Amino acid sequence: MVQQSCSTDIAANIEKLKGNIRRCAAEGAGLVVLQELHNSTYFCQTENASLCDLAEPVPGPSTETFGALARELGIVLVLSLFERRTAGIYHNTAVVLEKDGSIAGKYRKMHIPDDPCYYEKFYFTPGDLGFNPVETSVGRLGVLVCWDQWYPEAARLMALNGARILIYPTAIGGVGTDPAAEQELQCGAWQLVQRGHAVANGLPVITVNRTGHEDDPSGHTEGLDFWGNSFAAGPQGEILAQFGRDEEGIRVVDIDLDRTEYVRRGWPFFRDRRIDAYQGILQRYGK
Predict the structure, then answer these.
(1) I want to staple 157 with a disulfide (CB 3.0 to 4.6 A). Which of 79, 84, 131, 247 is the partner?
(2) CA-CA distance, 191 to 216, in Å (whole number)?
(3) pLDDT tens digits, residue range 101-110?
(4) pTM of the predicted model over 0.90
């Protein structure tokens, strides 16, 4: 896991990422996960059409740059990119690179928020690739992105489609006007819901968040203070590794994918699902 702050200098951000990725590989990591939209600052604090210039094709410059690094280091690498699909259609896209630097697969963010300082609906078209894990040499990865992490349906469908691990590149923090106590409650809920996905699906979860303060370019708000607290949890929700709020750097953690078999035998939630009685989940609201 790589948790770091970002500046407006994209080239410097990428060099910083590359250094941290190398550190992960040097400590034996076979899979490295980066935070959401890691090449730049979190540009969705404002609605500015010119910022669509930050978008790039997939494959494109970032997949070439990081693909070469994945190939050199022999690692699987999870990127989070602002994808330009065509003029006027952009996605928030996670791209998984295989050990040979090739693109193993990608996932386009399905749930798109629209909240103060998180104006993502202005930039991102909702994903259209479904909840399909990416097959890699280190296992089948259920990659989702940030706001997706609040939705048990997304985690469940990834699990039902064979994911061995759930991965969430993330950019979440507090708006400067929120009291510190409220931000602590929100941060706790953010971690708790994802640990719940681990428990409900018997799968490990990896969540990599941004850290640091980023100013609002418009000056209308106090900007965002990202929560950091990136973490890895096991299939019973147990914390395996965690960053501090303002900490930058890496964490390398061992994930036992075979533990899912043991956990699901003891807690056979998948066996006891009432798939004949869940039609209502497809309604916007109940009766």
Answers:
(1) 131
(2) 25
(3) 999 999 999 9
(4) yes
